[in-house]
Each structure stands twice: as structure tokens, then as C-alpha cells.
Design brief:
5 helices, 7 strands, 2 domains, 21% strand, 7-stranded antiparallel beta sheet, alpha+beta, 189 residues, single chain
Length: 189
């Protein structure tokens, strides 16, 4: 729990020794998870370390700042879409209203691709792995197709925290590079 004035501002997960946020939620408002996008921009990293890019945001610190700055899904979506970032990332954003959900694929300057919940083929869920959703995943690491198959098999009426955890923790969805698995409900504390 991240508190300000004794009240919960947001909840999040992180790793030992790291002060940024990987996955979190603002209770009653929105949830956000970030997946790494292996697309380093070494020139920008060098320029950032030299203080030449003062407005650019380090992605994991950016998530924490976003939870501090935004109180709504719309604010979070706007900030994710426009903030200058040090590296690309996949942002999975969920809201507190029906059809509020987006996968936002970012590079350092802009949105490369956005998939909204109501635009999806299966309009009741979005599934994101560490590959661009508009491109084929690497054949050695295709977690998207098995994940989508598991979600369709579970069905909207079978959806529960336990069911989602089974999807996320089964092979190949969970593999040796999985850092953590989180199930969140924005509407619950």
C-alpha cells in the first residue's frame, strides 16, 4: 500500500531494492501493468544519464508517478499515450466501468499501437504478452495463442480470480522468464 496523509493512494507490486512500480491499481479507479518491450534506445539512455533529456521518464518510475498524478482511467490513458519515455513498453490498463480496457504499445515518443477492449475480437477480454499485439509472436515463445485459447475455454461466465490465475500460471503462459503474476480487482479493496 502506498499512503499519503494516512490514506491509500494506490497499491502496487515491485521487486526488492526497486522503488518503481511494475503492476498496481488505484482502488475503485484503474489498474495498470507494464510488460517489458525489448527495444533499447542506447543513444537516449546515454543522453539521459548525461542530463540531456530532463523531461524523459524512466518507465518503472513513470508508473509510480502516474499513480500519484492520475485519479481516473482517462487521465492514466492520456498520460501513458503522451509522456516521453526512456524505453518502449506494453501498458495494460483497466478501468472501473464496462469496456474500459486498453493495451497501449509505446515507443519512446508515441503510441505505436492501441487495442481497446471494445475493439477486440473477444470483447470481454484482452490478453497481452511481451510481443506487439498486431504482429505474430516469436514461434519459440508463443504464449498469446495458448492464453487466448484458455480464456475462450474458461468463457465469460467462468471468469473468476481462481480461473484467471489458472490461465496465467499454466504453461506456456507462465515460463522461466515470468517475473510475477498478479490478479487485481479495481472495484474491490
Amino acid at each position: 500500500n502506498y499512503l499519503k496523509g494516512g490514506k491509500i493512494v494506490f497499491k502496487g507490486t515491485t521487486l526488492a531494492g526497486h522503488v518503481g512500480i511494475i503492476t498496481g491499481m488505484k482502488p475503485g479507479q484503474f489498474s495498470l501493468s507494464m510488460n517489458a518491450k525489448v527495444e533499447p534506445d542506447y543513444i537516449n539512455v546515454y543522453r539521459w544519464t548525461q542530463g540531456l533529456l530532463p523531461d524523459i521518464r524512466y518507465v518503472m518510475f513513470f508508473e509510480r508517478e502516474l499513480f500519484e498524478e492520475c485519479d481516473t482511467f482517462e487521465c492514466a490513458r492520456q498520460l501513458i499515450s503522451t509522456a516521453p519515455l526512456l524505453s518502449g513498453a506494453y501498458f495494460i490498463l483497466g478501468g472501473n466501468k464496462p469496456k474500459q480496457g486498453s493495451v497501449i504499445v509505446r515507443n519512446v515518443t508515441s503510441v505505436q499501437f492501441e487495442r481497446k477492449l471494445y475493439d477486440a475480437d473477444n470483447d470481454w477480454f484482452l490478453l497481452q504478452t511481451n510481443y506487439d499485439p498486431d504482429k505474430e509472436p516469436l514461434y519459440l515463445d508463443d504464449r498469446r495463442d495458448p492464453g487466448n485459447a484458455c480464456m475462450k475455454k474458461m468463457g465469460i461466465n467462468g471468469t473468476s480470480a481462481e480461473g484467471l490465475y489458472k490461465v496465467l500460471s499454466s504453461k506456456p503462459n507462465k515460463n522461466k522468464t515470468t517475473i510475477h503474476t498478479v490478479i487485481m480487482s479495481v472495484s474491490k479493496d
